[in-house]
Write a structure and sequence with these properties.
Layout lengths: L1 H29 L5 H8 L3 H7 L3 H20 L8 H27 L4 H7 L1 H16 L9 H21 L7 H13 L4
Length: 193
């Protein structure tokens, strides 16, 4: 009977953790300063249960950001990056700006509690995908080569985060935010005349 109880507790714990992480993603996306109490309430658990799984707010924020990045990675892995590098980048940007919109608020929450090295580590896979695509486009003469590649990757991230911020501020709409972000990135990457 003891062996049956342990797996059940494990399954219950996993469901509880999943609810807490989902609640943290939702609340921190709405408000990067959301309290532990608000997150626990959203998850339908008490503070003690939450702290039983996540010892600190930083642990919870990291779990929420990691979950968002994992979900984003699943979406972005399905984007066709073959063919013309410019068209591939347009597809990638159109698919990723809404993911950035969610993770921007989570990132804001994380910046207050996680070291910058850890944040870079969590964003390494999406950054590598963009970097590889830019490198291919540079080799093919589609993207500029007069600026450092890491800088261009950062500029793309800044543009996407800026688009998400402008959407939240009401300066862009759902209808034009992706188009605006893609046009801005394309202008930045165009080789100088």
């Amino acid at each position: 009977m003891v062996s049956q109880t342990r797996p059940r507790r494990r399954a219950d714990a996993e469901r509880s953790i999943a609810r807490i992480v989902a609640a943290a993603r939702a609340r921190l996306t709405e408000d990067p300063d959301a309290t532990i109490d608000a997150i626990a309430a959203e998850a339908g658990v008490g503070r003690m249960t939450l702290y039983g799984h996540f010892k600190t707010r930083a642990d919870l924020v990291e779990a929420a950001l990691s979950a968002a990045l994992e979900a984003g990675e699943a979406v972005l892995a399905g984007v066709d990056l073959e063919g013309d590098p410019q068209e591939a980048l347009d597809r990638l940007l159109a698919s990723s700006w809404s993911l950035v919109a969610e993770s921007a608020a989570l990132l804001e929450a994380a910046q207050g509690v996680l070291p910058s090295g850890r944040l870079r580590e969590l964003h390494a896979d999406p950054a590598k995908r963009v970097e590889d695509l830019l490198r291919r486009g540079q080799r093919e003469g589609v993207f500029r080569t007069d600026l450092p590649l890491p800088w261009l990757v950062s500029v793309i991230q800044y543009v996407l985060h800026g688009a998400a911020e402008q959407l939240r501020a009401g300066n862009l709409t759902e209808a034009n935010v992706a188009e605006t972000a893609v046009a801005t990135v394309n202008a930045v990457l165009r080789p100088p005349a």
